Amino acid sequence: MRRFDAEYLTHTRRGMWADSREALSTLDLSTRERVLDVGSGTGALTRVLREETPGDVVGVDADPQLLDHVEGPAVVGDAFGLPFPDDTFDLVVCQALLINLPEPVDAVREFARVSRDGVAVIEPDNESVTVESTVDGESALAGEAREHYLAGVDTDVTLGSDVASVLAEAGLASVEITRYDHARTIAPPYGEADVESARRKASGSGIATDRETLLDGGLSTEAYDRLRQRWRQMGRDVIEQMADRTYERTETVPFYVAVGQI
């Protein structure tokens, strides 16, 4: 199972559900008495669930350090062996978790064990991510890096568009699917996180984190070095446009919300 730190989770989930929560309507949150958020991380979804649910919402994650950021009830636990008896919750939810698991169907079966009513999974299709930028070449460069990353990663990070089949294979019925596009936009005035992201591009530190995955995805060492060099130049162009307050970037990640009945 892949693990992420709090900074990464905060960046990737920033603004999630800020513009609309319509895609969560199939979860019937207003009727829920007890909800479990599996792989809650720093609690981004947990907070949304608590705002929409009159009952109790519990977060669970395998990393106790991430749970330090979660307000309210949260326990340490593994997605394949949740520390709860059968039928403890009336809804079990996860967001961007199954794409990081080697056996997502087994995890959903465990979700169903501790739920007496339904399971909802919210997963992205990382193959269909789009990037629009005022920096020439940033979109193409991001697409090139993504292509090799997808080929090299050892779990199915494109799972979102096929998540209904995972729930069906796990034995859930009446699966409903809703698509939600999460757009992360950078525009003036720039926040601290935006500036730090640009610095990481210019230094090449961000893409260096994924070096081994990119190499596993078909890049030679020389090709990776060339990609990183172009990535750093792109980062310098971003910083230059930020100085002129002309830089804008929108990354859109399609998520699929799937709800199945026990």
Order of helices and strands: HEHEHEEHEEHHEHHHHE
Catalogue the unreliable spans. none
State the helix count. 10
Structural class: alpha/beta
Tell me, briefly, the overall form: globular
Say how many strands there are: 8
Q: Can you tell me the CATH topology?
A: Rossmann fold
Q: Roughly what percent helix?
A: 25-40%
Q: The biggest beta sheet, please?
A: 8 strands, mixed
CATH class value: Alpha Beta
Mean pLDDT: 93
In the CATH classification, which architecture applies? 3-Layer(aba) Sandwich
Tell me the β content.
Answer: 15-25%
Computed Rg: 19 Å
Quaternary structure state of the chains depicted:
single chain
The end-to-end distance, rounded to whole angstroms, is 25 Å
Number of structural units classed as domains: 1
Organism: Halorhabdus utahensis (strain DSM 12940 / JCM 11049 / AX-2)
Keywords: Methyltransferase, Transferase
Protein name: Methyltransferase type 11
Domain Methyltransferase type: 36-119
Describe, in plain words, how this protein is organized in 3D.
There is one protein chain. The protein is α/β, with parallel strands linked by helices and 262 residues long. The chain has a single domain (6-261), classed as Rossmann fold, CATH 3.40.50. It is built from ten helices and eight strands. The chain has helices spanning 6-12, 44-52, 64-67, 104-114, 138-152, 163-169, 192-203, 205-209, 211-216, 221-243; strands at residues 34-38, 56-61, 74-76, 89-95, 115-124, 130-133, 173-186, 249-261. Strands 1, 2, 3, 4, 5, 6, 7 and 8 form an eight-stranded mixed sheet that branches. Helix 2 (44-52) links the parallel strand 1 (34-38) and strand 2. The radius of gyration is 19 Å and the shape is globular. The model has no long low-confidence stretch (mean pLDDT 93).
